[in-house]
Structure formats: structure tokens, C-alpha cells
Amino acid sequence: xxxxxxxxxxxxxxxxxxxxxxxxxxxxxxxxxxxxxxxxxxxxxxxxxxxxxxxxxxxxxxxxxxxxxxxxxxxxxxxxxxxxxxxxxxxxxxxxxxxxxxxxxxxxxxxxxxxxxxxxxxxxxxxxxxxxxxxxxxxxxxxxxxxxxxxxxxxxxxxxxxxxxxxxxxxxxxxxxxxxxxxxxxxxxxxxxxxxxxxxxxxxxxxxxxxxxxxxxxxxxxxxxxxxxxxxxxxxxxxxxxxxxxxxxxxxxxxxxxxxxxxxxxxxxxxxxxxxxxxxxxxxxxxxxxxxxxxx
Length: 296
Prior knowledge:
With 296 residues, this protein is α+β, with helices and mostly antiparallel strands. It is 18% helix and 33% strand. It has 6 helices and 15 strands. Strands 3, 4, 5, 7, 9, 10, 11, 12 and 14 form a 9-stranded mixed beta sheet that branches. Strands 1, 2, 6, 8, 13 and 15 form a 6-stranded mixed beta sheet that branches. The protein starts with a helix and ends with a strand.
């Protein structure tokens, strides 16, 4: 492609060209010249690619229209969203940092991604990413990212932030910052003693909001001057990464060994036993097992 474009452009450089052609012909060649430049710029631009995520439970896909059983109740999603940043992919030789291909470099938050859905609204389980330095023939091997928001943007006003940090319900206060991971469940059906029939019951709700705690500032509407005591971010690194396969988000691993009927939820408090278990499960206090890619 580059050779053809260069040949096209070079035809305009000879003085004889202008002597031998009338004005209309020259105009036609000018249009052709502009087309050549367009082809040249397109040939140099790297094509973005898609990374997919998929929530699951008990190895089955989970979405807003499906329910699952837990603690003798049937549950459904109300909301499941999370932020990731510092997204990198490893080729055969080195790591490549990825940014949002939708917004380009004009967005100051192009390195942050919001993934998931609020039930009843548009779902977003895939991200379009790019890296100008990543060769198209590069063999991809590993992927790495953090669940969270960088400290320098974690405590800014969400009303004035560019996408994706402009969603107010993913924000606590200026002091505490954003909810990095938010899952909310609802249930209005219990399972009878024979485990055969569903019985309509009062509504039950359960939630887990992951975010930083122990943040020091003069008031809830003031941002802290230094990082919080408990940043509560999750480091994810997946080996043998396959770009054609979704990264699964295993909700079963997240709520494993937790009675979500007796405990209504967790707001990342380090003094709450339920939160301690959830923080362990999601990978804040140890190796994470919620995000994975199972070979098929």
C-alpha cells in the first residue's frame, strides 16, 4: 500500500506535469492526490481490537434476565459494574499499555474503562482498545489490569469528569472516592423445603461496593492529600491470554461461603467480618480468583 501511494504522489513532482495538462486535468489530479494522502494515512493507522468480559456463576452465563439459587432463594442482578485501569497486554517481547480506542487521546481518562451494566440500561461487556506500537502480527501471551481508579483521579468531582468517571452512582464522596466494583442483587422468591417450588416472598437485597477506605481529609467533601490507608484495589494478571475468548467474572467465587440472606451487604469496611471475607474473595487481601479465562 505504501509503495502505491508514494508512486501516486511522486507523479505531481515533475515540472513537465504542469506544462502538459490544462486546468481541469490538474484539478482532477489534485483530487486524486488528496485521495492518495487519505489512503496513506489509513494504511498507517493501527486497527483497534476488542477485549470481552462475561459474568458467570456455576460456569453458566449470568445476566439481568437470568436468576440463580443461593441460600434457599432465587436471586437476580440489579447492577454489576467495575472500573479497570493500567491495562497492559504482553507480546512476545514486552508489555504494551492499552487505551480506549473510542475516545482517543483527547479524553484524559482514556486509560480507564467502565465495564458492566445497570439492569434496564445498555450493557457494556466489551472494550475497544488500541496501542499504536503493538505490531499486528504480535503473539499475545498475558493480560494485566487493576480493578480500581488511579489515586490522582479517584477523588475528583464526578460531575466535571470525562467519561467514564462521570457516573454519580459509582461515586461515594470526595473523601472516599469511587466505587471500583459494584454488584447489587435482588430476590423476591424463596425455595420450598422440597427445593422444587418457588414461593413469592418479601423483597431481599444484597450488595457489595468495593472502594478505598481509611481516607483522611477535613470533611467528606474534601479530597485526601495522600493515598488512603486501605486502597482496596485488585491486581489481575492472566497468563495464556486468548484475545478471541472472554475474560470471565465468576460471581460464584465472589460470594462463596457467604450467606447473602443474613448479611445484607458490604461497603468495604475493614472491621466488618463479611467485608473481610469478600475482600479476600475478590483478591484485595490475596490472590484474586474472580477474573479468569478458562480454556475451551
